[in-house]
């Protein structure tokens, strides 16, 4: 933690226009933090592309939810037509991965999510600097994540960013990120949390 972490979060928001940004120790922890914040857990299904890095899938399993692997289209992103064919009452979220810097068909997928009251999460680990029109990816879903691993467009060696549309989700994620520790009372833990903070050095 520290002033450089806060400066980084502020600069990120200034460039990419994401609403509420929270740095994390890596991209996988950012996605896990998002799923936990949005209450995705046991009995839930999460639609995710079958062509992606395992870091898009593991956090679903961490929360005892079930990944539902769906094939991709010619943009390397999850195929909207195949999403609709695989919807069930158990599907609580869709994770859209913008792979190799190529935006998935997020506009069509967003319509599907809205029509079916399903949460939409964007995995932008490989898509820093990718826009649809004048809007940067990561601004279409209920939440999104970015990675700053060594092979990414912007790197901190290791690191991630969890971005939220709603302030209430951001505040909950902030609590979860730091061991569930109260912001008003040091070493007073309100909920079970994680150690997903980014360091000032990173």
Task: Characterize the structure shown.
The chain has helices at residues 3-16, 27-37, 58-62, 80-85, 106-115, 167-177, and strands at residues 20-24, 45-49, 66-70, 91-97, 119-123, 131-132, 135-136, 143-147, 160-164. The protein has 202 residues and is of the alpha/beta class. The strands form two sheets. Strands 1-9-8-5-4-2-3 form a seven-stranded mixed β-sheet, with helices on both faces.
What strand line-up does the widest sheet have?
Answer: 1-9-8-5-4-2-3
Tell me what portion of residues adopts beta-strand conformation.
15-25%
Dominant shape:
globular
Mean pLDDT figure: 96
Helix fraction by DSSP (H/I, runs of at least 4) = 25-40%
Backbone structural class? alpha/beta
Number of strands: 9
Count of individual helical segments: 6
Sequence of secondary-structure elements: HEHEHEHEHEEEEEH
Low-confidence segments, ≥5 residues, pLDDT <50?
none
What is the terminal-to-terminal distance?
10 Å
* Biggest sheet layout: 7 strands, mixed
Radius of gyration: 16 Å
